[in-house]
């Protein structure tokens, strides 16, 4: 067995992660599973990835294995595979916890990761990892900041950010569309929205201030920010996020 990275499930997420790993300088061997033929062929051609003949071959050739299989079938696919105690498995499948994964991958160790995908391809997306583990933290660091919750319960709630991440594109699209419908060119609307949110996200990430201090520093009393926030509050535009995130949490934890 080599120090190669194995990936089971060669679809959209695997493509993002391989792109991010190679762009970040990860030069070790990457072996992917044979399904997802177009993606696997592209990754082989562009990122020197090896395509295994079977899922079991991925397991046999790699000690660290990232599982990017469809969540609906992942358990059944893993059930057919044979792992040993040296294997370290990290699953990106949403909604499958250690209660399901650990028995299937035994005697291998199992951790879970959630990530946005697209932003990991440019080394800028967070990876939420649990439990902590030096090897996976080092590998995932090629893809963006690695965040480690303190408990499984905290991971389960924090992992809802996977849905928030995807939905944030739809939010940005809705905002850009508002500007476009009022006559702003798409080439201006899109970077305007993206740069506004990216800049403010950088402030939020780095600022020592609490929320109130940050908001007070940008919102003049009686000004337009206050007006927009008030209108959103009155129409339920802010609390609607609570209900949506609660629904995702319920589904992901089957609660
Ligand atoms: N997309 C993201 O950015 C993202 C982010 C966070 C987490 N995730 C999680 O990552 C997982 C994969 O998502 P995805 O968007 O990458 O899905 P996807 O594009 O559908 O990729 C899944 C891949 O798994 C392959 N597959 C299906 N059955 C298989 C089997 N029996 N053996 C080997 N491979 C098999 C599929 O191959 P075929 O095409 O041949 O069917 C496909 O290439 C999901 O569990 C999702 O919750 C995704």
Structural class: alpha/beta
Question: Spatial order of the strands in the main sheet?
Answer: 3-2-1-4-5-6-7-8
- Relevant CATH superfamily of the largest domain: NAD(P)-binding Rossmann-like Domain
- Relative helix content: 40-55%
Overall mean pLDDT:
96
CATH topology of the largest domain: Rossmann fold
CATH class of the largest domain: Alpha Beta
| Rg | 21 Å
- Separation, N- and C-terminal Cα atoms: 39 Å
Second rung of CATH, namely the architecture of the largest domain:
3-Layer(aba) Sandwich
Please summarize the sheet with the most strands.
8 strands, mixed
Total of DSSP H or I helical runs spanning 4+ residues: 12
- State which percent range the strand residues make up: 5-15%
How many domains make up the 3D coordinates?
2
Low-confidence segments, given as residue ranges, are none
Bound molecules: NADP nicotinamide-adenine-dinucleotide phosphate
Question: How many strands appear in the DSSP assignment?
Answer: 8
Textual characterization of the structure:
The chain has 255 residues and is α/β, with parallel strands linked by helices. It is 54% helix and 13% strand. It folds into two domains: 2-150, Rossmann fold, CATH 3.40.50.720; 161-253, ProC C-terminal domain-like (ProC C-terminal domain-like fold, Orthogonal Bundle), CATH 1.10.3730.10. It is built from twelve helices and eight strands. Strands 3-2-1-4-5-6-7-8 form an eight-stranded mixed sheet, sandwiched between helices. β1 (2-8), α1 (12-23) and β2 form a beta-alpha-beta unit. The radius of gyration is 21 Å and the shape is globular. Residues 8-14, 16, 33, 35-36, 39, 55, 68-71, 73, 77, 92-94, 114-115, 117, 162 line the site of NADP nicotinamide-adenine-dinucleotide phosphate (NAP). NADP nicotinamide-adenine-dinucleotide phosphate is lined by residues 8-14, 16, 33, 35-36, 39, 55, 68-71, 73, 77, 92-94, 114-115, 117, 162.
């Amino acid at each position: 067995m080599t120090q190669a990275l194995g990936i089971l499930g060669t679809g959209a997420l695997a493509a993002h992660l391989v792109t991010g790993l190679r762009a970040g300088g990860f030069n070790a061997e990457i072996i992917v599973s044979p399904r997802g033929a177009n993606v696997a062929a592209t990754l082989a051609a562009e990122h020197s990835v090896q395509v295994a003949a079977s899922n079991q071959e991925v397991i046999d050739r790699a000690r660290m294995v990232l599982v990017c299989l469809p969540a609906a079938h992942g358990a059944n696919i893993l059930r057919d595979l044979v792992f040993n105690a040296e294997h370290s498995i990290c699953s990106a499948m949403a909604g499958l916890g250690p209660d399901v994964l650990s028995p299937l991958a035994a005697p291998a160790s199992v951790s879970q990761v959630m990530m946005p995908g697209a932003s990991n391809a440019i080394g800028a997306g967070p990876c939420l990892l649990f439990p902590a583990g030096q090897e996976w933290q080092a590998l995932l660091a090629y893809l963006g900041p690695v965040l480690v919750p303190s408990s499984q319960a905290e991971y389960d709630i924090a992992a809802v950010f996977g849905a928030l991440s995807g939905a944030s594109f739809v939010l940005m699209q809705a905002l850009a569309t508002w500007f476009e419908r009022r006559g702003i060119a798409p080439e201006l609307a899109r970077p305007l929205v993206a740069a506004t949110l990216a800049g403010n996200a950088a402030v939020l990430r780095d600022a020592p201030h609490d929320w109130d201090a940050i908001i007070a520093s940008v919102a003049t009393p009686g000004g337009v920010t206050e007006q927009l926030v008030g209108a959103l509050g009155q129409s339920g535009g802010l609390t609607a996020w609570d209900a949506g995130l609660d629904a995702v949490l319920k589904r992901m934890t089957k609660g």
